[in-house]
Design brief:
Blueprint (H helix, E strand, L loop, with lengths): L1 E3 L5 H11 L5 H10 L4 E6 L2 E11 L3 E9 L8 H15 L5 E5 L4 H6 L2 E12 L21 H11 L4 H9 L4 E5 L2 E6 L5 E8 L2 H12 L7 E5 L4 H9 L3 E11 L14 E3 L7
Parallel strand pairs: 4-5, 9-10
Antiparallel strand pairs: 1-2, 2-3, 3-4, 5-11, 6-10, 6-11, 7-8, 8-9, 9-12
Length: 279
């Protein structure tokens, strides 16, 4: 049975996440439910949550599919396909036909079967914790109460769709750190195995370096993940300079017939994505 996910399903969703070795926390699941309470789904067998998927809409222009997970002992039974198709049908009924996702090599064949095509690569880079961490001064990263309308416009132009609800949710979360300047912003948040930096959007490399350094300044003692599109050479150069190395590569895919938002965006201003589940 496939049904809408509820808050009470989060422990079961975390079991799915642990089985896959992913980095999400209960707060990430809660954020997904806040952003799209009707678009998060689980598959249930005899009262046990055995699979999940989420579909988050960014205005009417774009949707993002994520958290496609199935317990290992229930795989190869069509559960993932059923969940994905259920989410796509839900989006179609609401008139949202442009949908993207970040695909692992395991998930890619399924996504191709239901109509997704690869458009570009996305990489995860990692920085290990330093042996003798030092803040190097007072950090300027903090919980962000709000982003200016100008920064929300910069984000929309960079992505070519409206992420304002996600950005506002991150601003309100006391566990999320962030930094901003007139030309950009960056967020960072806890993960189950590593601190995650992102999203980060900036008009130029100088602004990106400023907000990312501020966000990362007090994290020298922690393992950190950073996801970005390798087509952004400035992001790659900055990640290298800050001690990150590539550890994982996924394929960004779009539902056939839908245009990749990067075709009409300023994607070179996206220095860190919001995570594989948020785009």
């Amino acid at each position: 049975m496939i049904r809408q996910m509820r808050d009470a399903d989060i422990p079961g969703a975390m079991r799915l996440k642990h089985a896959a070795g992913w980095n999400q926390t209960p707060s990430d699941w809660q954020r997904l439910l806040r952003l799209e309470p009707e678009g998060c789904f689980v598959a249930e067998r005899d009262g046990l949550v055995v699979g999940s998927t989420t579909a988050v809409r960014y205005g009417s222009e774009m949707a993002w599919l994520g958290m496609v997970l199935v317990l290992p002992e229930f795989r190869r039974q069509g559960i993932a396909r059923g969940l994905v198709q259920h989410a796509l049908d839900w989006l179609d009924l609401r008139g949202t036909r442009t949908c993207g996702l970040d695909a692992t090599s395991m998930g890619k064949p399924l996504y191709e079967e239901v109509g997704f095509v690869s458009t570009e690569l996305i990489e995860r880079w990692e920085r290990p914790p330093e042996d003798n961490p030092s803040c190097g001064g007072r950090t300027s990263a903090r919980s962000v109460g709000t982003l200016s309308a100008a920064l929300e416009r910069i984000d929309r132009e960079a992505c070519n769709y409206d992420r304002s609800l996600l950005l506002r949710d991150l601003c309100k979360d006391s566990t999320v750190a962030g930094a901003s300047c007139p030309e950009g912003f960056a967020f960072g948040r806890p993960g189950s195995s590593a601190w995650f930096v992102g999203p980060c959007v900036a008009k130029n490399a100088r602004a990106a370096a400023s907000v990312l350094r501020a966000t990362l300044e007090s994290r020298q003692g922690q393992r950190v993940f950073w996801d970005f599109l390798p087509s952004n050479r400035s992001a790659r150069e900055l990640a290298t300079e800050l001690g990150f190395q590539p550890v994982r590569r996924l394929e960004r895919m779009m539902l056939r017939g839908g245009k990749s938002p990067t075709l009409h965006s300023h994607s070179d201003e996206v220095y860190a994505t919001a995570g594989f589940e948020f785009g």
